[in-house]
Fold this sequence. Notes:
This protein is α/β, with parallel strands linked by helices.
Amino acid sequence: MSAFLSSRFEALEPYVPGEQPRDRSYIKLNTNESPYPPSPGAIQSAAQEAQSLRLYPDPEHTELRALLAKKYGLSPAQVSCYNGSDEALMLCFMAYCDKHRPAVFADITYGFYKVFAQVNGVPYRIVPLKDDFTMDVPALMEAEGPLFIANPNAPTGLALSASTIRQIALARPDRIVVVDEAYVDFGGESSVSLLKECPNLIVVQTFSKSRSMAGARLGYALCSEALTGDLNTLRYSINPYNVNRVTLAAGAQMLRDDDYYRACVKKVISAREETARALSEMGFFLTASRANFLFARHDKLCGEVLYKELRQRGILVRHFDKPRISDFVRISVGTPEDMLLLTGAIREILEERQ
Ligand SMILES: Cc1ncc(COP(=O)(O)O)c(C=O)c1O
């Protein structure tokens, strides 16, 4: 840290993204990316749009917002687009949290929430998950302050029903509830249908997972027109051209190519279930993941050792050296071939330790 850095950031602990190593080729099951490319049409749209890169992009994301609004039965004024859903989440912390309104989130959840609170200099309150890693819903309802819920949660993959989110949002209509639905397409239940009834609700989604566009950085927020207005005020105060032309073009085409997206999601869910079966047969405990990853623990193999052994064999998974979950690994769901290699390697590692 240099002597010039503002004292505001002295204690800031930045988010640690999953590793993206370049030393050799790995089977990458560590950052919940899609194992499938964007649709051929989306790739073509991106290439075509690259011709226009000398021009700034549309700061209002008009075409993409219209498509998203149609898809969800909302007005375009309820939709805003971001440079990844991380940017939407950051703006929610910035817009709605302050010293009187501490952010509220679970102890085991998306690691960025704590960083967003810290970088914005706002206090936060942690509501621990229950012993079985499910959300403590009464405690969440009781806690005052803007609430951030990943649904399905990461890294557990466990999901709340939309009716539970409804209860939570209605319990305290005077506070914002942000539902981060990064993984919802893999078997969760979206809260978008609650927007009419819950003006304090913000649903955040991403193209990074089910729509195979993590590298393009595209996320969006769905909420009331008034809340969208708040987010736009901040967005226009920081980076009006936040989504680049190539990403906007690819994203719009990806939305049109709905059948392609559905087929990819179906393959991922089927590989997830198949892998979960194989791992539980090997003695793993797994949470009931509704996401594109599995969260697994084995009594005879600690999370860190499993992570290291797999890495040596060219397979990357994620290990979190954190209280309550250090025994686990999080395994992103790849192609069926990737998952066969993974389960084969794990079988071998377990046999070596017999
Ligand atoms: C729960 C959760 N929310 C949001 C994100 C951010 O996604 P994006 O790539 O859209 O910024 C992630 C990324 O892994 C995530 O796990």
